[in-house]
UniProtKB/TrEMBL annotation:
Catalyzes the reversible cyclization of carbamoyl aspartate to dihydroorotate. Belongs to the metallo-dependent hydrolases superfamily. DHOase family. Class II DHOase subfamily. This is Dihydroorotase. Zn(2+) 1 binds at H14, H16, K100, D248. One of its GO terms (biological process) is 'de novo' pyrimidine nucleobase biosynthetic process.
Amino acid sequence: MSEHIVITRPDDWHLHLRDAEVLQDIVPHTAERFGRAVVMPNLKPPVTTAEQAVAYRERILKAVPAGMKFDPLMTLYLTDNTPGEEIHKAKESGVVKAVKYYPAGATTNSDSGVTDIRRVYPVLKILAREGMPLLVHGEVTDPKVDMFDREAAFIERVLLPLLNDIPSLKIVFEHITTREAVELVKRTPERLGATITPQHLLMNRNAIFQGGLNPHHYCLPVLKREEHRQALVEAATSGDPRFFLGTDSAPHARSAKESSCGCAGMYSAHAAIEFYAQVFDEAGAMNTLEAFASFHGADFYGLPRNQEKITLFKEPWQVPEKLRFGGGELVPLGAGQVLSWQLK
Ligand SMILES: NC(=O)N[C@@H](CC(=O)O)C(=O)O
Ligand SMILES: [Zn+2]
Ligand SMILES: [Zn+2]
């Protein structure tokens, strides 16, 4: 038998599933690999109430193939006007596990996001009391700040003051992309965690321009320099429990990506754990993959670890050039490339 590893079934702590007819094409990829996933609320319109989150979860569950177990963990989209009462309702629903903070205008479908974090401090204090984590898209939107510096500026302008002002709030710094973010997490107490995507572990910003402008390598936060990628690989493979798996798999139709104003987001759900296995293998760190993918996130959220196992084989396979996406098509991360690990 070829080389293989058995690990506890992983969870994806940052995922976009979209809605309506595309759920059928998208949900199975995640359900085949992961036990649970934290589902982002940036639909159009956004998921701002517990009631909407519960209904969205039902639609997702209908798209889970028969015989598969998959538990979508729901989130609420924080706006300037989220009532404190909604946080209590979210907690009581039992299915909403976190609240998502998008700075207004920072990323895909973030127009209803928060205009100034201080405005929502009263709601964040309730969140802290309920013990629910705040998930942050950590980029400033100030047009004077360079695209590549927006995460580092967010740390200074928003995250450090927030950590200081509400000391009991649990925060997940989502899809971190810089050495500065890695260092912040390492030097902050346990209540700050971070997710890391496959694309930010696999590629640096050269990938956006290699052989011509490639819209499929555009996501937010945008890919960074090689030194930052290396810092992320070190963090992910280090065994430090504050770093955990979150794909940020974010499907957009080919037509929306290959456009004069292409959307931000990469789709990785079709081969998510396989991408991470490749990164950990290349770093000589397969021994820490299970903790990063299957333990740290659950521990941070205070949820039980999964009991089931999955097996990954070191057998090359080719990623399809395209996938179905409702009436359109989707270009997946690694389209046409050969990956070294596969799920059986
Ligand atoms: N990551 C992205 O580039 N896009 C995400 C939004 C997000 O996570 O910021 C999306 O919803 O398309
Ligand atoms: Zn984001
Ligand atoms: Zn995202």
